[in-house]
């Protein structure tokens, strides 16, 4: 639940309707989603990724493996890595996840977006290269939506009222 450096330390946990806050020395150190019901879990990959990288064989049969994908793009990257190199896919994905823990999840997510969009294999080396060249990454596609003409709605409303 909390960073390993706080094992054995006394912490306060504040319960809220949708999340928990972990406080240590008057500072909030973690916010965790509140999960209700039996058999549910929430894994903070940042807390265990360094251990998993040292033991990559454990990831294939890891009980909470589905919780190790921060979003769908990370899951797509894992699937591509396993398809490209089945024997090395797990270790490559764990290294990508380790980059997310140390370099920032948004930066790695952007790198994965670029790699997957250009049909390149999202290896940890490719992700790291894109992170170091962050200025050269293409921005997220901008969507422009035309303003809605409310006159059409007014005409339709008048027709319905007359019925």
Write down the domain tally.
2
Q: What is the averaged pLDDT score?
A: 87
Lateral arrangement of strands in the main beta sheet:
1-2-3
Determine the structural class based on helices, strands and strand pairing: mainly alpha
Q: What is the string of SSEs from the N terminus onward? A: EEEHHHHHHH
Overall form: extended
Task: Please give the radius of gyration in angstroms.
Answer: 22 Å
Kindly estimate the percentage of residues that lie in beta strands according to DSSP: 5-15%
What features would you highlight for this structure?
163 residues; mainly alpha; 2 domains; three-stranded antiparallel sheet; 7 helices; 3 strands; 10% strand
């Amino acid at each position: 639940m909390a960073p390993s450096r706080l094992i054995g330390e006394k912490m306060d946990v504040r319960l809220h309707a949708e999340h928990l806050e972990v406080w240590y020395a008057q500072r909030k150190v973690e916010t965790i989603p509140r999960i209700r019901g039996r058999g549910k879990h929430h894994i903070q990959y940042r807390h265990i990724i360094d251990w998993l990288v040292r033991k990559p064989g454990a990831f294939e049969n890891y009980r909470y493996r589905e919780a190790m994908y921060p979003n769908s793009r990370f899951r797509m990257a894992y699937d591509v890595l396993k398809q490209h190199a089945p024997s090395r896919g797990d270790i490559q994905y764990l290294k990508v996840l380790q980059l997310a823990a140390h370099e920032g999840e948004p930066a790695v997510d952007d790198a994965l977006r670029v790699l997957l969009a250009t049909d390149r294999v999202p290896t940890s080396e490719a992700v790291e290269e894109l992170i170091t060249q962050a200025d050269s990454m293409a921005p997220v596609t901008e969507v422009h939506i035309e303003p809605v003409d409310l006159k059409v709605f007014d005409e339709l409303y008048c027709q319905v009222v007359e019925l």
